[in-house]
């Protein structure tokens, strides 16, 4: 029965961080031997999540960012074709305002996309080995009277509603409200909305407003290009004939096809996120039905301000939050690296993090049976 109890995590148990070389003997924490001099290492170099860093840690992206390159390529290609093949005709036959409006929208879309993709979405730093050990000790002290491992949840009251906090076995901490662990990036993200492969990043507390501005402005840009290309083809076909126009303007036809097939999904996504912003909900909460009305009014969304305007202001115009992971900071030798998921005790095998709580309960039941 003793074997079923939780063991504490010793402070020095965290193994080498994936992606770093563990030499024997290992170099002192925070220092890397390079020839005869030791270079202090920055936190992004040993960051435990599955992210890529660029420009000395200033920019970050999820590891698999191929779809992000596709998004960027599609926007650049469609807009480039529009500026090259449609704008000269429309500017000379209609008005110069068309290329100007398109250029403003285009630069706004690209800047919002890059802000969403390369920003820290609101990652919470993992607990250091000593913090994890301290929390393990406190959890152990809560459950010494029974043979069952203590439940790894904590209840807090938010706006008179009881919200349950779950323990993250990877980050070794109780997740704050609205925080979820992204299985793609392997990080706990505050006000986690979803992981978006199209922008190559999680969408969370620190980049949601840019993501919303991106999809909304992209809807306008796509609809604008579509309408302008239709106008261009209609004007040309009045003099050249419809079939001749299609043959002589293949770039415009390609833009028309791309815009036609993408505008519906982008408009739908913008509408869905407008509903989420107005209700102060996240995609994660909406999919899980966390505050669904069918469960009774006592489960209403505790974060809603009960007013659409206030919710919109709170989500889109709230204060900017600083990044908590300090990825450009130097590693302090006495703090050590954050707890690695490889040092998990007890071990339940390589299960996904979301099922770890369930695995914990199953494990406890099988031990007491
Ligand atoms: Zn986590
Ligand atoms: Zn993610």
From TrEMBL:
The chain crosses the membrane at residues 67-85, 91-114, 210-233, 253-278. It comes from the Eukaryota. One of its GO terms (biological process) is protein targeting to membrane. Belongs to the DHHC palmitoyltransferase family. InterPro entries: Palmitoyltrfase_DHHC (IPR001594), PFA4/ZDH16/20/ERF2-like (IPR039859). This is Palmitoyltransferase. It catalyses: L-cysteinyl-[protein] + hexadecanoyl-CoA = S-hexadecanoyl-L-cysteinyl-[protein] + CoA. The DHHC domain is required for palmitoyltransferase activity. Residues 1-40 are annotated as: Disordered. Keywords: Acyltransferase, Membrane, Transferase, Transmembrane, Transmembrane helix. It is a multi-pass membrane protein. It holds the Pfam family DHHC. GO terms for cellular component: endoplasmic reticulum; Golgi apparatus; membrane. Residues 165-288 form the Palmitoyltransferase DHHC domain. The lineage of its organism: Eukaryota, Metazoa, Chordata, Craniata, Vertebrata.
């Amino acid at each position: 029965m003793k074997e079923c109890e939780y063991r504490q995590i010793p402070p020095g148990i965290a193994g080498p961080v994936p992606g770093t070389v563990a030499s024997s003997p290992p170099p002192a924490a925070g220092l890397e031997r390079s020839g005869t001099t030791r270079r202090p290492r920055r936190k992004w170099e040993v960051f435990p999540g599955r992210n890529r860093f660029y420009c000395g840690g200033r920019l970050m992206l999820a590891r698999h960012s191929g779809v992000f390159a596709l998004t960027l390529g599609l926007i650049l290609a469609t807009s480039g074709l529009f500026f090259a093949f449609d704008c000269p005709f429309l500017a000379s036959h209609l008005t110069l305002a068309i290329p100007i409006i398109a250029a403003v929208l285009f630069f706004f879309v690209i800047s919002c996309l890059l802000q969403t993709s390369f920003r820290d979405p609101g990652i919470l730093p993992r607990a250091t080995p000593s913090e994890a050990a301290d929390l393990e000790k406190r959890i152990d002290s809560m459950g010494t009277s029974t043979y069952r491992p203590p439940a790894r949840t904590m209840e807090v009251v938010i706006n008179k509603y009881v919200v349950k906090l779950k323990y993250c076995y990877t980050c070794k901490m109780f997740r704050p409200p609205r925080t979820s662990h992204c299985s793609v990036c392997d990080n706990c993200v505050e006000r986690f909305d979803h992981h978006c492969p199209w922008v190559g990043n999680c969408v969370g507390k620190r980049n949601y407003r840019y993501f919303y501005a991106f999809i909304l402005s992209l809807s306008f840009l796509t609809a604008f290009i579509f309408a302008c290309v239709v106008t261009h083809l209609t004007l040309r076909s009045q003099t050249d004939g419809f079939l001749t126009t299609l043959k002589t303007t293949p770039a415009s036809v390609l833009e028309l096809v791309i815009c036609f097939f993408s505008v519906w999904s982008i408009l739908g996504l913008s509408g869905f996120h407008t509903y989420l912003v107005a209700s102060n909900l996240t995609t994660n909460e909406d999919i899980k039905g966390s505050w669904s009305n069918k469960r009774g009014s006592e489960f209403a969304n505790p974060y809603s301000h009960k007013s659409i305007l206030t919710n919109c202001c709170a989500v889109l115009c709230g204060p900017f939050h600083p990044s908590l992971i300090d990825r450009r900071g130097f590693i302090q030798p006495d703090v050590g690296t954050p707890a690695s998921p490889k040092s998990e005790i007890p071990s339940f095998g390589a299960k996904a993090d979301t099922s770890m709580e369930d695995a914990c309960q199953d494990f406890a039941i099988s031990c007491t049976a």
